[in-house]
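Moderator note: this is an archived Q&A kept for reference. The question asked for a predicted structure of one protein chain; the sequence and the answer are reproduced below.
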Amino acid sequence: MINTPILVLGAGPTGLMLSAQLHRYGAPHVIVDRKPGVTDVSKALAVQARTLEQYHQLGIAETAIEDGFMAASARFIINGRVRATAQFGEIGAGLSPYPFLFILEQSRNEALLLDHITSRGGSVQWSTEVADLQRNSEGYAGTLKRPDGTSEPFRCRYLVGCGGASSPVRHFLNMPFRGATNEQSFFVADINLDLDLEKHGLLLVFNHSDFFAFFPMPGRNHYRAIGVLPPSIANPDDFPFDLLKAHIEENLGLPAKITHHSWYSAYRVHHRIADSFRAEDAFLVGDAAHIHSPAGGQGMNTGLGDAVNLGWKLAGVVNGWASPGLLNSYSEERRPFGVRLVHTTDRAFTMLVSISPIAQFIRTHILPYWLSMVLRFHKTRRLMFKTISQTVIDYRKSSLSDGSGSRSIRSGDRFPWFEWDGGNSFEWLTDAGYIVLRFDGAEACDVPGWTGPVTTIEVAGKSAVAAAKAGLPNRGVVVVRPDMHVAHILAG
């Protein structure tokens, strides 16, 4: 019999990040997945700055960067010619320690998180699925089934669904998953592409009828390709790669040859979101709660952000540091962002793939030149970075936010990143638990509703000057939540 406070169903990037957060606070849990191990194929690629900041808290950001690829630019190939180039570089300089657009495929993110969990004595029960799931007065119960025919009963207090779009937890909860499915089918393929262009960023290909995107991957001439599945492929579930290869080479518009492919697949794009991310003591995280188009590279990062938000709260409740009411803030904080994301990515993706004459004109005559032009300006570069990087997500309307603030920073905001000679603000946020920053000798304050770990730091000298320039008080106290969002500001 497995008896655990928390059962996590699904060990993709979201479930693994949740497990990593629970290990960070020593919260006992069990994580299982139907797969035999870390995925070896994946659609997700982009790792946004906010995710790297969360990785930094775990001590794995530098390892991730060593494994990935920084996209310096996006080149627009229109009807066979490179018509415009949008330069990214360090587009978010001064806003984050990771001011670039970064690519690291999902499988590498999963392996990185699994290594982190293993180093802390954790593990995943692979090739394991749940059967006979039921609710009882003490939480949830059921049976874990394994391929060898063995089974084991379990009981848990809290149930977390991280099992993707087909989440068994969401189906068990009978939670509505509202939205729609795009009519077109799309392809994704990992390929080696011989192309007479230097590999230093994204390639976005538009012509009158097709759209392709090529994302640079580590390794010579290695790209992840996506696009609309051609009409010549009648059965998206079963087609030879040669058909796809011919379609790409013939419609790219430049001399190119695909010399190798490691995998390929067809898929449909959905835009859906659950009515709530919580029902009683069960939670939906990542794709189990929201799915949307790949536009903007937001999907995996949003799931990881869900896991960070829920992880410290679950740990606090299970460890007896906070009341169960803290868990109400998970859906309250994360679902509004999910709703905005589903709508915005749907609109963006529709414009990219629509066959309407207006959409085609925008793609081929306006978008490339407009984007390359506006990215020459400091303000628009910062705005684009903030929008894509997820560093502007705030919880100002959360029940955990009390409305306190100092100049431009309010309770619920992401704690700002800034530097001074010899240090930076995120060095303060590495300890697990709440962080209390004391400015100019102000007296520290308690953290209401929390008896878990609290680290108090005296801020003075160069760091205090830099903090004031970033909008923090000259004198007072700033309380930072475990997920690096501001909890309270007492100025004066």
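Archived answer notes: Residues 328-353 form the longest helix (26 residues).
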